[in-house]
Design goal:
By secondary structure, the protein is mainly beta. Helices cover about 10% and strands about 50% of the residues.
């Protein structure tokens, strides 16, 4: 009997937490590396129901993880770190090669196709509250096409 008294409130709390998730991530993936390569990118689609911004990222696979933007500057493609990435309410923001992405630097080991890495994203809502999204991002081969669309997952 005591077991049921514990189980029901715990299950209800977990369901409520999932229902309140403000951010969904669709198709996260990381580009594989070659020997001695110390950096790569992570890509995905992020949607924040009420709006907010991606303020940081981390991964045990890398010593440094930053939010980056690639953009043309005249005839030259430049990459730079950005302090945050706006997530307009209800609109998917695509992190993709050649655009915004999560940059993983000082990699601790090569990333091989077929493996996956843990990746944490911190999203700050308009109310200033932060949520941490814990992802498992599969590693895709160099030159591989982006993953096929799947159902969005709430984290």
């Amino acid at each position: 009997m005591k077991y049921r008294q514990f189980l029901l409130p715990t299950a209800l709390a977990l369901l409520a937490q999932a229902a309140l998730a403000q951010t969904t991530v669709k198709d996260p993936w990381v580009r594989s590396t070659v020997a001695e390569q110390k950096a790569t990118g992570a890509f995905m689609q992020i949607t924040s129901a009420s709006g907010g911004r991606l303020v940081s990222a981390s991964s045990p696979a890398a010593g440094v993880v930053e939010i980056h933007e690639m953009a043309m500057d005249g005839n030259t493609m430049r990459m730079r770190a950005v302090p945050a990435l706006d997530l307009p309410a209800g609109k998917a923001v695509e992190l993709k090669p050649g655009g915004y992405h999560v940059m993983l630097m000082d990699l601790k080991a090569p990333l091989t196709a077929g493996a996956s890495i843990d990746l944490n994203l911190v999203v700050e809502g308009k109310d200033g509250k932060r949520e941490t999204l814990a992802l498992k991002a599969p590693v895709r081969a160099l030159g591989a096409a982006p993953p096929a669309a799947k159902d969005a997952q709430k984290y």
